[in-house]
Amino acid sequence: MYFDTLYAIVTVPTCWVSRYLELGPLPLMTQKESRNRATLLDQGHLICISMPVTNDGWPDAFGFGLGGSGPCYILWVEDGSSAHAAGLRPGDQILEVEGRPVSSLTCEALTKLGQECLNVPPSIGVISRVQYVEVPKKKQEEVGLTLGDGRPLVVVSVTPGSPASYAGVRTGDLLLEINEVPVTDLAEATRTISSCEDDVLRLGLLCIGRRQRHSRVYSASGSRSETTSQAQRLKAQEFHRKLDEVLGDHPDLKEKVFALLKQYAQERKVDRLAYMLPMILTEESQHRLINNIR
């Protein structure tokens, strides 16, 4: 009864890291022209971060940039900025601004809304949309993708029939991570890919726009062993097992999770799912289930 519901959820190619971040207000120190100095305590070190006193330059003035035409995504985050200190990361989708759902807004409309907010800076709710693919790699073998410079880096071409193509990488994907390390420099990214000695290259991608991945899973020998649907079905079964493991003593919570997933399968309201899951799974030991909903 519930397997189809779970399967519908795990096929959504997202990485669920639901968090609602407050970009300030940070304690002010001094005011000079249009800038403030704010103090943060970061891992025991006192650091200073520049903060605008108005939202006129939002989001760039706060250290991050947007892209997309509804929904909108964070494409880059400046190191040492207030956005970086607050936990914003490239690949985050903006769900809310000051409690208002904004997934349908264009980048221009969202920017205008942020600049018109009274609170400086406005509070925003985000969810990570970074998708991870594993590309099999053999020594002296090309993975079959070409990168272009940008902020972030972009996949400009994928060789048909190559490991990257079968893994699900597509032209236009934005490359954010290689082997879980953020990348922003084209030369460094190209060098990392070509010199990687691991059997698998793990890429963190952001795909703007609706499209279906048709990835395949490779066996250790390099041959295609499973189709996407088979791999996703295994993920659904694994999620069901983990659900029993974590919530075995809480049948009421399991029913609530199933009901929420069923509702999502019917309505496809991502914002509601992202908001309600942490409300149901309140204990820290239960939070790992959220990351298993793909």
Task: Give structural attributes.
single chain, 294 residues, alpha+beta, Pdz3 Domain, Paired amphipathic helix 2 (pah2 repeat), six-stranded antiparallel sheet, 8 helices, 17 strands, 28% strand, globular, disordered N terminus
Can you characterise this structure?
With 294 residues, the protein is an alpha+beta fold. It has 3 domains: 23-122, Pdz3 Domain (Roll), CATH 2.30.42.10; 131-223, Pdz3 Domain (Roll); 228-292, Paired amphipathic helix 2 (pah2 repeat), CATH 1.20.1160. 29% of the residues lie in helices and 28% in strands. It has helices at 3-10, 82-86, 107-116, 163-167, 186-195, 228-247, 251-267, 270-280, and strands at residues 18-21, 28-32, 35-42, 45-52, 64-67, 73-77, 92-97, 100-101, 124-128, 131-136, 145-148, 153-158, 174-178, 181-182, 200-206, 217-218, 224-226. A hairpin with a 5-residue loop joins strand 5 and strand 6 (73-77).
Write a concise synopsis of the structure shown.
InterPro entries: Formin_Homology (IPR051425), PDZ (IPR001478), PDZ_6 (IPR041489), PDZ_sf (IPR036034). This protein is α+β, with helices and mostly antiparallel strands and 294 residues long. It has helices spanning 3-10, 82-86, 107-116, 163-167, 186-195, 228-247, 251-267, 270-280; strands at residues 18-21, 28-32, 35-42, 45-52, 64-67, 73-77, 92-97, 100-101, 124-128, 131-136, 145-148, 153-158, 174-178, 181-182, 200-206, 217-218, 224-226.
